[in-house]
Amino acid sequence: MSEYIYVGEKFYSKENAKVSVLDKGYLYGDGVFEGIRFYNSKIFRFDEHMVRLYDSAKVIMLNIPLAYDEFKELIKEAVRRSGFVDGYLRVIVSRGEGDLGFDIRKCLNPCIVIIPAQLKLYPQESYDNGISLITVPTRRSLNESLSPRIKSLNYLNNIMAKIEATNHGFEEAIMLTNDGFVAECTADNIFHIKNGIIYTPATYHGALEGITRNLILEIAEKNKIKIVETSIVRYDLYTADEVFITGTAAEILPVINIDSRVIGNGKPGTMASKLIEEFRNITRNEGEPV
Ligand code: PMP
Is the CB of 35 under 6 A from ligand 1? Predict the structure, then answer.
């Protein structure tokens, strides 16, 4: 964790970085966030993350109290102060303080928090040998109740699914929609490959429009590999040649087993490995300097 964390209107030392117990983010998970990577002092896909943050905020009618460019500048400042060359940023905008009710008109000062950190979610072995997934009972929230495309602070749905996974000894879970289509994992998007074609659940099935997901779409297009966003059921995953998951924190992880079915030959697939290589190339070279 960085020694400096931005809260409200200035940077604080880690020990003194605190938010009010009356903040709606704390009381109700009322707010939005982003998880962003920086590699070699360059913020990766910075605009994509910021656009998604502003879009999420717009949908929940939260006014981000900073102009887009000012906000970006502040985030760069946070990275510079951290002294980290490679790392992860948690950027949060919560509704701010009000009373104990739900009336957003009483919340006049949304609260910005920026936490630079270093993280390693999975051991190297998971990247080399692949991971196993389990489908869990908790369903992805309905588009019509809380759109899973909003990257909101309210992650209890995903946390429930993660609890179910870890209770059974798995680090990541597959979440289905109410009618049984594959949506995504608790913090990652999912892809499978069959006969040279890449498939991923369409966002209308509850998948977050992941920045890493978009990058896979881009890499596939560039390499003239057919990629399809569609309706996927577990049968498709069990019988796939390859499966992998993607996310800013996890990057790209091969999947070798789902619900006790061996995927492909039980080893990370060659196409996924090529995508991972290309992904690494792009993260090494791209990004907005801080
Ligand atoms: N799905 C969910 C539910 C997520 O929280 C995330 C981000 N951690 C992703 C997918 C992956 O999105 P991205 O590639 O933008 O990190």
Answer: yes
